Backbone:
């Protein structure tokens, strides 16, 4: 075999690319895995074990960081140690037609190193939503199609969570949940059965392991994952901790860092892709690699950019864009509206350990006739938790110092909403016609906003949160809205959506391109809706495993 | 804030105006003055810190060397506006000291320093922000985090309800 011929190529090493690599390699395909950034080796390259006082700025962001990464430095878990997992914005510019915060991590593992780790299955409500209310195109799959694949990926991912028996938040194959603290348990108990719409508090479902999986974990409650510092104990799932090592173990994977895919090569005779053109991000040299099938997992905007940049006689507006939908229907999730309060009680109680998850309030709007809303469709969920810090202290001197060791007078608790963003054709990304980045790739332009339906939820998100806390016995309740712009939820999706009709969608029900049968896309770009519940990554993982299974069968049947 | 980011990134793309900070241009001729000033600030912050968080059965702010850390982050992490605010707060310490005792803070006796801090703590909002800065520098230092309090680098477990303080 020539060195630039492979059975399969995977573009990207984040959450979905790692899964594509693992599945393809385990099915025996010689697989080239391309990553535009540097290699990050599990454990070896992490610095999570350095005590916080031994870092120069003790976590702070510097003015130089803000200059080089004006956008990344505003991301919630960007800090002194995590910044190496975020891009330099100057080298990686994009145009914001409307404000759009685009968090990016270009390295082996991608954003799986710095993700939020919450994992929630989509329910039948999510898969039926577009067909029912008419926004976007109907999902070409239903819950029963993906359920076995959630079952397949969850034990490998290592999701901890509780079994609740809710139709609108399907249970999975979970490890034991991380415990609630005293205030969370008490508030959960107090609200149980009190709301007609079924509002309840359950354990957060997170890809942090409460049980060991091979040599991974269990979680040591260090808190480094939430801070974006990775984990030397492998206590949470990432491509680096799990899927890439499993792919490497097969001996079938060729991992190539510093390899930015700019274009897919299309052959109009066979009507298939023959390979990809890669630019070495260190030398800027171009090189072509060939394969029988291609999995695009470069993240929503970058996967779409590669297709839009792959122009041919047959596809003058981008590869696989016969529907004209490529780049459109971009979604994120509106979030950051909620309520906080203080709890009187448990003054003699504390928590020990830095738990990497919190509590979760499943969706309770528009789940049936009784919970139907007049002014918006779909819904939202809450994430949150209770906690207790130390006293601020007053005055100065020995007394002041002594005060600093005392706990705050009361516990406090907050819950924050994450809601659905409808698919709108006019929310889009496209390539700038002149500007290119330093690697020669046209710059991405983003034109995306929240509209009426998202705005109509905002007050309900705040008020319903306050009602939950009030029922739970909290005092001094205040509502808040962080006024987040699109992109800042880091759940960008939808620009190469699935669908049954090739006239209105880019991918079929197997994440296979309608127009080019040997291309599969299983990152966020494939989504038909954002879903009401956050934690989209577990769905990308399940769809990836499902698509690889189909692709390899089709390959063996000589259909592609 | 978001609007500003939007403008920033667009100007970069268009190869637009590049703003060079004055600091970069003037730094070469002011280096000596700057470094002298900063070593005085470090000393002042450590001595002031020791009044606010004195050594007791555990070390205080001076041993934690809060001055050096604060000086570092003021220089590298603070915005221009925050730097101005910080410098103003430091000036207030010395100005008040000159007014009350006819000498700088570092020239004052322990008793005078104590009187000065008492006065500012009651009246000056700028002092409050300096006190918070010193306190956070102390609590994030090895002394503060691991001698004054207890830090568990690898807790190994999560207990949601315990009577033992975790710090």
Residues:
């Amino acid at each position: 075999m020539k060195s630039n011929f492979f059975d399969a190529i995977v573009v990207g090493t984040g959450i979905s690319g790692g899964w594509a690599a693992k599945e393809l390699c385990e099915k025996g395909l010689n697989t080239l895995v391309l990553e535009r950034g540097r290699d990050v080796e599990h454990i070896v390259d992490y610095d999570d074990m350095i005590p916080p006082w031994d870092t120069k700025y003790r976590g702070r962001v510097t003015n130089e960081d803000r200059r080089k990464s004006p956008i990344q430095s505003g991301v919630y878990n960007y800090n002194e140690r995590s910044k190496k997992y975020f891009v330099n914005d100057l080298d990686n510019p994009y145009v914001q037609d409307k404000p759009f915060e685009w968090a990016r991590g270009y390295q082996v593992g991608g954003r799986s190193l710095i993700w939020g780790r919450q994992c929630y299955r989509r329910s039948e409500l999510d898969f039926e939503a577009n067909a029912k209310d008419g926004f976007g195109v109907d999902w070409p799959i239903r819950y029963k199609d993906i359920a076995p694949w959630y079952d397949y990926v969850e034990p490998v991912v290592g999701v901890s969570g509780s079994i609740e028996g809710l139709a609108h938040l399907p249970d999975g194959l979970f490890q034991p949940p991380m415990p609630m603290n005293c205030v969370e348990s008490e508030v959960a108990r107090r609200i149980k059965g009190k709301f007609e719409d079924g509002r309840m508090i359950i354990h957060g479902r997170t890809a942090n392991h409460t049980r060991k999986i091979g040599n991974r974990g269990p979680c040591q409650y260090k808190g480094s994952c939430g801070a974006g510092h990775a984990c030397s104990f492998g206590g949470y799932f990432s491509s680096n901790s799990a899927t890439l090592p499993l792919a490497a173990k097969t001996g079938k994977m060729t991992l190539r860092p510093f390899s930015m895919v700019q274009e897919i090569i299309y052959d109009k005779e066979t009507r298939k892709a023959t390979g990809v053109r890669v630019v070495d991000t260190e030398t800027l040299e171009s090189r072509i690699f060939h394969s029988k099938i291609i999995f695009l997992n470069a993240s929503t905007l970058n996967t779409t950019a590669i297709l839009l940049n792959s122009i041919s006689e047959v596809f003058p507006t981008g590869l696989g864009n016969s529907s004209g939908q490529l780049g459109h229907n971009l979604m994120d999730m509106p979030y950051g509206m909620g309520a906080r309060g203080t709890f009187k009680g448990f003054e003699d109680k504390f928590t020990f350990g830095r738990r990497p998850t919190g509590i979760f309030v499943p969706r309770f709007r528009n789940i049936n006739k009784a919970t139907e809303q007049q002014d918006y469709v779909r819904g939202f969920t809450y994430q949150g938790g209770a906690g207790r810090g130390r006293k601020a202290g007053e005055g100065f001197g020995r007394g002041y110092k002594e005060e600093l060791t005392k706990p705050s007078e009361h516990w406090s608790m907050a819950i924050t909403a994450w809601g659905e963003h409808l698919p709108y054709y006019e929310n889009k990304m496209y390539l700038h016609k002149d500007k290119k980045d330093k690697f020669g790739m046209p710059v991405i332009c983003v034109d995306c906003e929240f509209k009426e339906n998202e705005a109509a939820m905002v007050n309900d998100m705040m008020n319903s949160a306050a009602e939950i806390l009030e029922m739970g016995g909290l005092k001094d309740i205040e509502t808040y809205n962080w006024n987040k712009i699109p992109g800042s939820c880091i759940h960008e999706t939808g620009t190469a959506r699935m669908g049954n009709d090739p006239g209105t969608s880019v991918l079929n029900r197997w994440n296979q391109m309608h127009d080019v049968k040997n291309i599969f896309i299983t990152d966020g770009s494939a989504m038909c809706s954002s879903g009401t519940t956050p934690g989209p990554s577990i769905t990308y993982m399940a769809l990836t495993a499902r698509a690889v299974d189909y692709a390899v069968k089709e390959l063996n049947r000589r259909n592609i | 804030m978001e609007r500003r980011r939007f403008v920033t990134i667009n100007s970069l793309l268009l190869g637009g105006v590049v703003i060079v900070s004055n600091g970069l241009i003037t730094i070469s001729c002011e280096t000596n003055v700057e470094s002298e000033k900063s070593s005085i600030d470090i000393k002042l912050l450590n001595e002031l810190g020791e009044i606010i968080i004195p050594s007791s059965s555990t070390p205080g702010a001076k041993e934690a060397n809060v001055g050096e850390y604060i000086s570092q982050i003021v220089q590298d992490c603070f915005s221009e506006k925050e730097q101005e605010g910080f410098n103003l707060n430091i000036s207030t310490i010395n100005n008040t000291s000159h007014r009350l005792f006819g000498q700088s803070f570092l020239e004052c006796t322990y008793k005078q320093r104590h009187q000065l801090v008492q006065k500012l703590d009651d009246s000056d909002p700028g002092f409050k922000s300096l006190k918070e800065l010193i306190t956070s520098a102390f609590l994030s230092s090895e002394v503060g985090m691991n001698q004054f309090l207890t830090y568990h680098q690898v807790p190994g477990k999560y207990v949601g309800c315990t009577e033992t303080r975790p710090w």
